Queue: 2 jobs
Job 1
Amino acid sequence: MNALFLLDANVFIQSHHSSYPLDVATTFWNKLKMLARNEIFISIDKVKEEVYRKEDTIKEWCVKNLSEDLFCDTGTSEIMAQYSKVINWAISMNSQYTPKAIEDFSNYRRADAWLIAFALKAKGSLTIVTYEKSAPQARNIIKIPDVCDSFGIKSTDIVGAFRQLGETF
């Protein structure tokens, strides 16, 4: 696996709905497609489920432009073991986070904890790409960058990933 970056669902959804609409920022989407094809960008099945949950133009683009291989399986025993560590970490943070924040983060249908588990399995070789921003004082939501910090996983946003790669669009 050549992958360097692990994409969160919001890379697809938020990119399209904010800065890089599919019908305007075609070079952005072509660059994302090329990096996915070259296995520099990967994601996981739980992200695919989040992106594909709604019948819309971003799902349609993903179906037409991305290989099924982009979305790696999280159902392995190795990843399940890492997922347990991540969920146990969230539960142990009950003095910081509200029960609702822990419950939301621990929801098996949400990709966040699975992304971190997948990155843990990769032993430092993957950077998670998300639009979420660190909020270490937050009580009502657990943010991916804060969990990454706790586990020694790198995280960045999509522009940061392009910069690290020296890519432009």
Job 2
Amino acid sequence: MNNREIFLNFLKTKFEGEKLLEIIAKFDIFFVQLCEINSQINLFSRQTNLDDLWTIHFLDSLLILDAGVDLNGKKICDFGTGGGLPGIPLAIIYPESQIFMLDSVRKKLSAIDKMCEKIELKNCNTIHSRIEDVPQKYYSFFDCVTCRSVKILPEFVKPMQKMLKKDGKIYLYKSVVLDDTELFESKKLTDVSREEIGKRIIVEIS
């Protein structure tokens, strides 16, 4: 079984019918776009076997579903989105949510805008900023902040919290190293490890 089949089998446990077919079609476009653009702009490691994108990036981005988290209809900020991960996968499966992908590298955001247009995602936005300099209009704006590929530094904590609504939550995608989660007091850890990816923990911070 190749990695695309592994990813599709995961999707089949969550979705069915027309919804499933639409999701698969959008991920196929995303895969092609990500591969094409990565040859010009470094969105993921060029040492990565392209077949592995289906598991180590696409499947990994959706493991938050295995933590019992429902982000449907939410305003989500994907902090340090890089190549649009997990922002674009979340936008694909949650068309009723508004996804704002935050990064300090403009050329990555330009690539994300282009990919979202190709995938025909109407619920995606990009924010060009460092987390410490996020415009005030985004204070108390988001239902949640996701972060998959950034080590949380002490100076990131307050800006992240300022962006959240009163009952908002932060979701960190972590593996073995959890030291930066000690910056937060109220947290719940859910192990979503899988053989195809390895150790993976979703840290929910209230």
